[in-house]
Design goal:
Blueprint lengths: L4 H17 L14 H11 L3 H6 L4 E2 L17 E3 L10 E4 L23 H6 L3 H17 L4 E2 L23 H16 L4 E7 L12 E3 L2 H6 L1 H12 L3 E4 L3 E2 L2 E2 L4 H11 L5 E4 L8 H6 L15 H12 L4 H18 L13 H15 L1 E5 L11 E5 L7 E2 L29 E2 L3 H8 L4 E5 L4 H9 L3 E8 L16 H11 L3 E7 L13 E4 L7 H9 L33 H4 L6 E3 L8 H6 L17 E11 L2 E10 L5 E3 L2 E6 L2 E9 L2 E3 L4 E7 L7 E3 L4 E4 L2 E8 L7 E7 L2 E3 L2
Parallel strand pairs: 3-4, 4-5, 5-7, 6-8, 6-19, 7-10, 12-15, 12-16, 16-17, 17-18
Antiparallel strand pairs: 1-2, 2-3, 8-9, 11-18, 13-14, 20-21, 21-26, 22-25, 23-24, 23-29, 27-28, 28-31, 29-30
Length: about 725
């Protein structure tokens, strides 16, 4: 049932009125006088003038948007903020983005860096330790490049598998997203670099992203997208949160008191600061009172520099209390101390490219997902005749475009036509899968065909024992994918090659799930996502079995777009990317509520092509003995896992629950476990209590209903093979 816009507006207005009566800036939820970062921040701010405090609330363009001219003192980046003179605080050198240190418009002479694979690859490892290592790598490179804030930590849920920035995020489940993104944030901040949790919130599409209103009932939002952000905050403790471009229930996210004050700062007790997205600030007093603490690059990307002279005028006129300015400055300075920016300033030095590339390679090796392996075609024989076709596999691996784009070390592997419009030509990292395959299997006879001619590719396929087709899908910030198909003629190419040689393996380098009309005609499918700087060797090692695949999907692959909650994206076929972002007053009612992705499929009894949580490897596993119990309010699932194959491998058993009142199943926990052949181990998974509850927005709390809960031990979201039940008494929990 669709929810009326009037309800959303009334809810937002009511929240705003309530917050005006009890201003959040009158107190700090975590400031009990003993927190060292809070104490040090207060000491610094005590000697600052109002003007100095306000200078902390406004950063300028770092050179990435103004013709490659860095401001005085700036390194050349997304934004720069000069600290007040004599404060002892560091200047803020702010860099994009979540996959590595960006060099916008090649502004820095030596700005190339190592890139992680896409956020989807990291999330598909289901390995929080790997996510921390990945975050630590890019945090270290940022620190060695002179930056102390990196704009990484994307936690928006995949509500649409065509989303242009899905590759930066983690998938469609709030628990999995929160834990994996939070772990990456923790890794970044271990290097004394602030990580920014973004884009808060409901920035789940690029179409109309600057103006669209994402309309959703508050309780449903708390149980889905906001739960992902909440868990990421608890896991990673980011120094900053970035509010998004879009409107949420008709109010811009960066001036939305329900999001910024009631939920983030009051319910979640967030002590850090909120920065705006670039071009996401629309007011002065309204934004400040709603909870925005810092305007980003406001001299260039916003209509006016709101938090400069306009905010000063608002304070002078009494429209914004000075106590709010004190709170804004306190939150910013507190994060500088909490993450170590003051005590551990960056030291510019050469990057350890070899070590960092190995981290990116390991991330890709763990995150690539084996979807199909008929007849055990993989791993490949090291002496086979192998035809490698397409995807520029002779040169490198593709990456996603936009503000997360990292400048490749060694230069771009594929020269494009020189497209000047955003985001430019697709960038290929010089990490060739073909060269890596030849290095892994020097006895194999490996040939390459570009795939531009289907007839030529078919001839190569017929002459080979096995074929490996590389297929790409370029997605980027600013535009959603017009369809779920692979780029160019890839579907026709794969179909023809598989008809000529059914021993065909497809390696997909994509930023989203794709439709696979040829799926049943090929023997193997490896989803490699955007593989990053170490992608070539990682893919080769997976194909030849030097490492076994262990990734599991974090997004559902549908059989058709008609299975999606929103089969059509309004305006997505527009030719101009920038027009895509400004469809004024467009609304999208998320009437699927909290049933995102696999939960939508479960609710509607749709069978996906490949379900959430799915992933194969080169051995086999079984599990048994599922027991569920409650002790002192904590619910735990216990079971046994067995490696029944002949190779060591990694399994990711998942626990799902459904509530007594029915509804779709929910991921409630998982364990990533490595077992030797024949080895067995007992595993316990603690179930997050919020996955056993509904959010009661009227009373602002979580409520666990009384009754019988169903629990599944599963290999993926559609696995019904092992079930148990448990009875719980109802209880409420504070948010």
């Amino acid at each position: 049932m669709k929810l009326s816009r009037k309800i959303f507006l009334l809810s937002a207005v009511a929240c705003g009125m309530a917050l005006a009566q009890v201003p959040a800036f009158a107190r700090h939820a975590h400031d009990d006088g003993g927190d060292p970062a809070d104490v040090r921040a207060r000491q610094v701010l005590a000697s600052m003038s109002l003007e100095d405090k306000m200078s902390l609330l406004f950063s300028v363009d770092g050179g990435g948007f103004n013709g490659s001219v860095a401001p005085p003192g700036g390194l050349g980046s997304a934004a720069y903020l000069r600290a007040p003179k004599g404060s002892g605080l560091p200047d803020l050198q702010i860099s994009d983005a979540g996959l590595g240190v960006r060099n916008p418009a090649h502004i820095r002479k030596n700005g190339a860096a190592v890139s992680l694979p896409s956020g989807l690859s990291t999330a598909s490892t289901w390995d929080m330790d790997m996510a921390r290592q990945a975050g630590a790598m890019i945090g270290r490179e940022a620190w060695q490049s002179g930056f102390n804030i990196i704009l990484g930590g994307g936690a928006d849920l995949t509500r649409d598998p065509r989303g242009g920035r899905n590759f930066e995020y983690a998938g469609e489940d709030p628990l999995q997203t929160g834990r994996m993104v939070g772990s990456t944030i923790a890794g970044v901040q271990s290097q004394h670099v602030i990580s920014t949790l973004k884009h808060y919130a409901m920035n789940d599409l690029e179409t109309s992203r600057m103006t669209m209103s994402a309309d959703i009932a508050p309780a449903a939002m708390r149980e889905s997208d906001l739960l992902g952000f909440e868990i990421a905050l608890e896991t990673g403790h980011p120094g900053s949160v970035m509010c998004s471009y879009n409107r949420v229930n008709d109010l811009y996210a960066c001036e939305n008191p329900y999001l910024l004050t009631r939920t983030l700062k009051q319910d979640w007790h967030y002590p850090g600061f909120v920065m705006s997205d670039w071009g996401g600030t629309h007011s002065s007093a309204r934004a400040a009172l709603a909870g925005l603490d810092q305007e980003s690059a406001g001299d260039h990307t916003d209509a006016r520099p709101y938090f400069r002279t306009l905010l000063a005028a608002d304070v002078k006129a009494g429209r914004v209390p000075q106590a709010r300015i004190d709170d804004m400055a306190q939150r910013i300075v507190r994060s500088l101390f909490a993450i170590g920016l003051v005590d551990h300033p960056p030291q510019q030095k050469p990057l350890d490219v070899v070590t960092d590339t190995l981290v990116a390679q390991k991330d890709e090796e763990e995150g690539a997902v084996l979807l199909r392996n008929q007849g055990n075609i993989l791993p490949l024989s090291p002496t086979a005749r192998i035809a490698v076709i397409g995807g520029h596999a002779d040169a490198g691996v593709i990456s996603g475009g936009g503000s997360s784009q990292v400048e490749p070390i060694g230069g771009e592997a594929v020269k494009g036509p020189g497209k000047k419009e955003w985001p430019g030509d697709p960038v290929y990292f010089p990490s060739s899968p073909l060269k890596a395959m030849k290095a892994e299997a020097p006895q194999a006879r490996i040939t390459y065909d570009s795939g531009t001619s289907i007839a030529s590719a078919v001839r190569a396929a017929r002459a080979a024992d096995v074929v490996v087709v590389y297929a790409t899908q370029f997605t980027f910030e600013g535009m959603d994918a017009p369809s779920m198909h692979l780029d160019d003629n890839a579907d026709a190419l794969i179909t023809a090659v598989a008809a000529a040689n059914p021993r065909t393996v497809v390696v997909m380098e994509t930023g989203d799930p794709v439709l696979m009309p040829w799926n049943n005609s090929v023997a193997g499918v490896l989803e490699a996502w955007f593989p990053g700087s170490g992608g070539g060797p990682a893919i080769a090692r997976l194909l030849f079995g030097k490492v076994a695949p262990s990734g599991h999907l974090t997004m559902t692959f549908p059989q058709a777009e008609s299975q999606l909650a929103h089969p059509d994206i309004a305006g997505v076929t527009a030719d101009n990317v920038f027009e895509m972002q400004f469809h004024t007053d467009q609304e999208l009612v998320y009437d699927e509520g909290s049933d995102v992705g696999y939960r939508w499929f479960d609710r509607n009894h749709f069978k996906p092509l490949y379900p959430f949580g799915y992933g194969l490897t080169y051995t086999t596993f079984s599990s048994d003995g599922l027991k569920v119990g409650e002790h002192h309010g904590q619910v735990t699932a216990t079971f046994n896992v067995h490696n029944t194959g002949t190779r060591p491998g990694v399994d990711v058993p998942q626990v799902y629950v459904s509530l007594p009142d029915g509804g779709a199943r929910r991921l409630a926990g998982w364990q990533r476990i490595s077992l030797a052949p024949g080895e067995s181990r007992q595993v316990s998974v603690r179930i997050d209590p919020r996955l056993l509850a509904h959010f009661d927005d009227r009373h602002d709390r979580w409520s666990v209903p009384s009754g019988t809960f169903r629990v599944w031990l599963a290999a993926c979201a559609t696995d019904d093979s092992q079930q148990a039940t448990m009875h719980l008494h109802g209880r409420t929990m504070a948010p």
